[in-house]
């Protein structure tokens, strides 16, 4: 499911004295970041989406992602900490389909 990963952000000054952010560094505070496995993501038109488990139902959920690696993606909008997502959703899965949870190996 969605996980929360603390990420330390820092500001750096440029040679001309203006604050410049490293591409991953935004502020001096540690932020909690919601991440999902990239295997849960798929394209829905021009946006990214995942299926969130809501009780026993799969719910199609549009998400906004930011930084992404080959294994994880940072979710800016669309998911909350603790949401459980379906990894490797089949093409036949639709919103409202009944699903059963099983442990990921």
Would you summarize the structure shown here?
The chain has strands at 3-8, 11-13, 19-21, 30-37, 42-44, 47-54, 57-68, 72-77.
Helix-strand blueprint:
Elements: E1 3-8, E2 11-13, E3 19-21, E4 30-37, E5 42-44, E6 47-54, E7 57-68, E8 72-77
Antiparallel strand pairs: 1-4, 2-3, 4-8, 5-6, 6-7, 7-8
What this model shows, in words?
With 105 residues, the protein is mostly beta strands. It is 0% helix and 47% strand. The chain has strands at residues 3-8, 11-13, 19-21, 30-37, 42-44, 47-54, 57-68, 72-77. The strands form two sheets. It has a six-stranded antiparallel beta sheet, with no helix packed on it. A two-stranded antiparallel ribbon has the order 2-3. Mean pLDDT is 77; it is low at 2-30.
* Largest β sheet strand count, sense and barrel closure: 6 strands, antiparallel
Q: Could you say which structural class the secondary elements and strand pairing correspond to?
A: mainly beta
Distance between the termini: 13 Å
Question: What is the helix/strand order?
Answer: EEEEEEEE
Spatial extent as radius of gyration: 17 Å
- Count of discrete alpha- or pi-helical segments spanning 4 or more residues: 0
**Beta-strand share of residues:** over 45%
Mean residue pLDDT: 77
Silhouette: globular
Share of helix, binned: under 10%
Number of strands: 8
Going across the biggest sheet, name each strand in turn: 1-4-8-7-6-5
What low-confidence regions span 5 or more consecutive residues with pLDDT below 50? 2-30
């Amino acid at each position: 499911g969605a996980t929360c990963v603390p990420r330390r952000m820092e500001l750096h000054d440029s040679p001309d004295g203006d604050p410049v952010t490293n591409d991953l560094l935004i502020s001096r505070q540690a932020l909690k970041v919601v991440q999902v496995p990239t295997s849960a993501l798929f394209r829905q038109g021009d946006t990214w989406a995942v299926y969130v488990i809501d009780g026993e139902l799969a719910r199609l959920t549009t998400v906004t992602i930011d930084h992404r690696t080959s294994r994880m993606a940072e979710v800016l909008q669309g998911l909350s900490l603790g949401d459980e997502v379906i990894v490797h959703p089949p093409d036949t899965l639709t919103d409202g389909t009944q699903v059963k949870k099983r442990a990921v190996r």
